[in-house]
Design brief:
By secondary structure, the chain is mainly β. The chain has three helices and eleven strands; from the N terminus they run αββββββαβββββα. A hairpin with a 3-residue loop joins β2 and β3.
């Protein structure tokens, strides 16, 4: 027996399906130029040493209307560490501490995302550093999700995040009398939407060329 459905009855279903397709999580690629990890750690009780790591890469699957579905996989190039002094960088990357030659990258892979209010969430995952994997928690704020104002005008997500980890948890326990155990992390990240949708949906028209300067009037006119 065939059941005929009037097209008007199908219309609401099609609208719902279209909305679901538009709300599907999109994939974003981390922008290594505009992503940086800042770290702070106690230096012999005198101050907190500040350093950065640039050049992180990775992917983010994200729907701002469904934070729990988000997935994050990031690699951080430890050898790009910069404390503002070449000798200090070399000492921290040496085998007694980060051992950057054997462990050139850290990696964070999310396992769950817990929304904590508007545009904020706890991102729980596994951090692998110095060859050791431990759970870590990022407190994340979504700063913006919009078309980038500069070419190629792709949809871009911008985030700020903080975390605190123990270096001893990752087997980095040398120089305890000089270097503190707690490492404070601050992350500023931008991620660009991949695929044609990231460009076609949000492409701004190229500005029209300016007209040529009018020719000067002929003499005697």
């Amino acid at each position: 027996m065939r059941i005929l459905v009037h097209p008007l009855l199908l219309a609401p279903l099609l609208v719902l399906l279209a909305g679901a397709a538009q709300a599907a999580p999109a994939t974003y690629a981390l922008d290594p130029v505009h992503t940086r990890v800042l770290f702070a750690i106690e230096h012999a009780g005198f101050s907190k040493a500040l350093g950065t790591v640039s050049g992180s890469t990775g992917t983010l699957v994200f729907d701002p209307e469904d934070w729990p579905s988000a997935r994050l996989d990031v690699s951080v190039p430890i050898q790009h560490l910069d404390l503002g002094d070449g000798k200090w960088n070399q000492a921290v990357l040496a085998r007694g501490l980060l051992d950057g030659e054997r462990f050139p990258q850290a990696r964070f892979v999310s396992s769950r995302v817990e929304p904590e209010g508007e545009n904020q969430a706890r991102v729980v995952g596994t951090l692998t550093l110095h060859g050791v994997s431990r759970e870590a928690v990022l407190e994340v704020t979504l700063n913006a999700l919009k078309r980038h104002p500069l070419p190629p005008f792709r949809r871009t997500a911008g985030f700020s995040a903080t975390a605190v980890i123990s270096r001893a948890d990752f087997g980095i326990d040398a120089w305890k009398s000089v270097i503190g155990d707690q490492v404070e992390l601050r992350i500023e990240a931008e991620a660009v939407r991949e695929g044609r949708a990231g460009r076609d949906d949000d492409t701004a028209p190229e500005p029209a060329p300016l007209p040529d300067d009018p020719a000067p009037p002929e003499s005697g006119s």
